[in-house]
Each structure stands twice: as structure tokens, then as C-alpha cells.
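Dear colleagues,

As part of the handover before I leave the project, I'm documenting each prediction I ran so the next person doesn't have to rerun anything. This entry is a single chain, and its sequence is reproduced below.
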Amino acid sequence: MVDRFLHDINWVLPLRNDGLTPVFETFTWLGYPTFITFFLPLLYWAWNRDAATRVMMIVMLSSLLNAFLKDYWMNPRPDIALQLDPEVAQSFGMPSGHAQVSGVLWLWLAYEVRRLWMWILASFIMIMICLSRLYLGVHDAEDIIVGLALAVVSMLLFRLSLSPLLQRFRGLNATWHIFFILMLMMLLALIWPGLSSEISQDNRAQSYDTLLVCALMMGWLYGRQWDQRYVDGRLRSNLWDQQYLPQIIAGLFGIISLFLLNIVLRTSLTFMDELSGNFLILLLLGFYMTFGVPLLLKILRLAR
């Protein structure tokens, strides 16, 4: 009975209809890198830079852990005939990346905000994202449960890293943090099970892509240091007598410019091999998120 609950998703099929499918497809999109890559810097530009950096770190580190365990356990997804999400390709199932990463993203964000309404909203979004993976047939209950459990463990460990005992480490120059992240990336490249010959070429490519989030973290942290040193701007409290207009303009400007920069970098670095090119692109995008955009906002007088 327990095994059937954990691994059988045939009960989902009668629930599917043309009205519910777009709803769950929308929620599942909230757990994909496309959304997260733009949402995290949006928090940085329009909300709180220190809190956004903490959210970014726990999300990226949790993503690395999730991808590592997927390739280590190599647990298959449900039958492809039941799947409605073509984005999963040939990746493995357990633990669910959507459950784990969305769990740390939204629950840690609620922890930073520390308001009851945010806990309710974050819990609702996280639950709907998890249900969307079951509805779309790309995960079973076991994948979701393990993903959520890892999210809780990740948050507890990350909270421990913010204790006064590690204050000295957190206060190190960003160059040291970047060095440690680079060492982590090299270590993972040596021990990553997905880089062995036991799995398909597609999965091996996905493993390399996951390691590249380290480049995004390095660029983000170095840009954060430059932002603190040379910019240190804050959005104006209002603009044209509209309280939230600065945040809206900053968010739109940041997202559009980030999208355009991504296009420019990908078209201008075609002479590099794919791995090196993607590493450099993510490094530069991370730096632009935390230094380039705040600098431009200050130049445009949207920030003080």
C-alpha cells in the first residue's frame, strides 16, 4: 500500500482536464531555472540586497545538491507516456528539483520577510509547484517527499552557517568566497557521478550545466562587493509621487537589460567552446546582476 502511494501516479490521470493543465503548467514554470534566474536578481534590485544574496546562495547550493543526488541515485521518472512536461528530457527523478529548490526559495524568502502573509503565500506556491509535478506526471510522491525533506535540511544547515560562530568566515573578502566556490566546483567535477560513462551523453551535459551555477554565484558575490564599495545606492522611496514606481521601473529595466546582455554575450562568444563560453557568460551575468544594474540605476537617478 505504501509502495503504491509512493510510486504509482495513475490516480492523476482522471484529474486531468483542459482547464487545470494550464494552471499547473504555470506553477511548474515557477520552479524552472528560467524563472529563478530572473526572480533572484529582481529581489536584489527592488527589495533587499543582503537578503537576496542569502536567498541566491541557498537556492544555488541546493540546486547543486539536488543535481548531484539525481545522478547518484539515478532513480527513473514515471513512465514517459504519463508525462505532460517535455522539459525534463532524460534527467532522473529523485529528488524532485522543483520540490527541493522551490522549497528553499519560497520558505527561506518567507523566513527573511518574517510576516505571516508571506509564510502563507510561500507555502501555497510551494505546495502548488509540488502538486504540478505530480499532475504533469514527471515525478511520483517519493520524489516530492525526498525533495521537500532535503529542502528542510538545506535550510537548517544554511541557518547554522549564519550563526555568530561563522561570522569571521562570512566577513572575508569576496575573493576568498569565490575561491572556495571554485574549489567546490572542481571537487564536484571530480566526484560527480553524472560525469562518468555510466549515463547518457544528454545527462552528462546536464551535469556540466549544473556545475556552471558556481560561475553565477562567483559573479554575483564579486559584483555584490563592488556594489557595496562603489555604488551603495538605494532606490528612491517614491518617484512622481508613486510609492512603488521605482521598484517597478528598476525591475523592468533590470530584466530587459539582463535579457539583452545574455543575447549579446551568447552571440559574441561563439568562438569559445560551449563549456568555457557558458562559464564566462554566467560569470558576467552574475556580476552584471549585482553591480552593473545598480550602477546604471544610480546613473539614471533611479537610486540615491
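The chain has a mean pLDDT of 81. The CA atoms of residues 112 and 211 lie 27 Å apart.

All the best with the project,
I.
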